[in-house]
Design a protein that fits this description.
single chain; 202 residues; 2 domains; rod-shaped
């Protein structure tokens, strides 16, 4: 977008202001759609950093002040075009700080999976009935994922927008409760199954 719009402006098929308005609108739409599929924790972080996108008028004045030390309305026509081009170019730039945080979150997620697998593996190795414990651990992991998913669906309504710490807490509680309840239900099911086998019904 930030590469094709300047071409359209240079060809005279749209003005610089129209190009800036188009890029501003499209970037906001992309952000809105991306947030619909973002995890509760990441959504809360994003909302804490930018609850609402800045208006086009704000951006025009911001880049005008940054480049020419005066508001957009005080610029000449050539200066206005340069301010609009700055908005167009910025529409294709990512936030380096956000990108770095995203990379760290990705690594933390992988580490969390490894720790979960290591704990489950240890419990299986130490168990007398390894097959039963393996099934129990799998059930617990699945229950934790289900609990975390359900907690994520209500995290925004409980915590409100822009509250990543609260969202993390809700997800951890949901995952823990889901894993615990699932493992307890699995143990109860196996105990009942063993009891049923002792009845000797043919």
């Amino acid at each position: 977008m930030s590469e094709s719009v300047p071409t359209e402006v240079d060809a005279g098929r749209m003005s610089a202001v129209e190009g800036a308005a188009f890029c501003h609108d499209m970037r906001n739409r992309i952000m809105e759609e991306a947030r619909k599929i973002t995890s509760p924790v990441s959504l809360a972080r994003a909302q804490a950093q930018k609850a609402e996108p800045p208006s086009l008028g704000y951006l025009l004045d911001r880049y005008s002040t940054k480049n020419f030390s005066k508001p957009f309305r005080a610029l000449t026509e050539a200066e206005r075009d340069r301010a609009c081009y700055a908005i167009i170019e910025s529409s294709g730039r990512s936030n380096a700080e956000v990108s770095a945080k995203t990379a760290r979150l990705r690594v933390q997620g992988k580490v969390g999976l490894l720790i979960t697998g290591a704990i489950a593996g240890y419990e299986i190795v130490e168990a007398n009935d390894k097959m039963r414990e393996a099934e129990r651990q799998v059930a617990g992991i699945e229950g934790g994922m289900l609990g975390g998913t359900l907690a994520g669906m209500v995290a925004s309504s409980i915590c409100g927008p822009g509250a990543p710490i609260c969202a993390i807490g809700v997800l951890l509680i949901g995952s823990s409760v889901g894993a615990t309840v699932t493992q307890m239900a699995y143990d109860a099911y196996l105990d009942e199954l063993e009891e049923f086998r002792t009845w000797g019904i043919r």
